[in-house]
Amino acid sequence: MEKTQSGTRHGGKPYYTTTTGGGASLAGALVGYEGLLAKIVPITVNGVVVAGVSLPNSQTDFVTHIINDGSAVLAGSYDGPQADCVPIMGDANRRTFLNGTCNPGDLLVSAPIATRASITLGDAAQGATLTSTAGFVQSLPTAPGVYFSVGIAEEAGIDGQLVKYRPTLAYITVS
């Protein structure tokens, strides 16, 4: 039986909840990774393949969710590590951590996986300290390549900020 749930929570916002333990997903819960992009991956739980979530491995991964709560536990759910993830949909703006800077109207793309200056997400007690850009967004670069767009910035942003944007999912080629 697939152990996923969907519905509404947090002021009527839709959510998608899925397990994250084992298989191709992150080892353990995604505590401290709130606000980062995530992709759906297959994982095996008790011999059954179910939907899990993981941080992206590449700037071209098709990211469809934002981690809302890396330690969610819902009644009737799988008993292991879980993550409450909000789908990226165009009906409402979203916030995700920014690598670099942006201006309103900039196209935001999934950041290439690279080493970055250390940053602690959330409060120091529960936030994850990251040295990678996995799950961050950035303004569309001018360098040739294929990028995965997650949306259009609705505010100016600085490095490490939870930047507000309007989702628009698409692959973008810069030549």
Q: What report would you give on this structure?
A:
By secondary structure, the protein is mostly beta strands. It has two domains: 5-87, no CATH class; 94-174, no CATH class. 0% of the residues lie in helices and 47% in strands. The protein has no helices and 13 strands. The strands form three sheets. A six-stranded antiparallel sheet has the order 1-2-6-5-3-4, with no helix packed on it. Strand 12 and strand 13 form a beta hairpin. The radius of gyration is 16 Å and the shape is globular. Residues 1-28 have low confidence and may be disordered.
Short description:
With 175 residues, the chain is an all-beta fold. The protein has no helices and 13 strands.
Overall structural class, as computed from helix and strand content, comes to mainly beta
* Mean pLDDT across residues: 75
Give the N-to-C terminal Cα separation.
Answer: 45 Å
Strand composition percent: over 45%
Uncertain runs are 1-28
Please specify the SSE layout and strand pairing.
Blueprint lengths: L4 E5 L3 E7 L17 E9 L2 E7 L10 E5 L12 E6 L6 E4 L9 E4 L4 E6 L8 E4 L4 E3 L5 E9 L8 E13 L1
Antiparallel strand pairs: 1-2, 2-6, 3-4, 3-5, 5-6, 7-13, 8-11, 8-12, 9-10, 12-13
Can you give keywords for this protein?
single chain, 175 residues
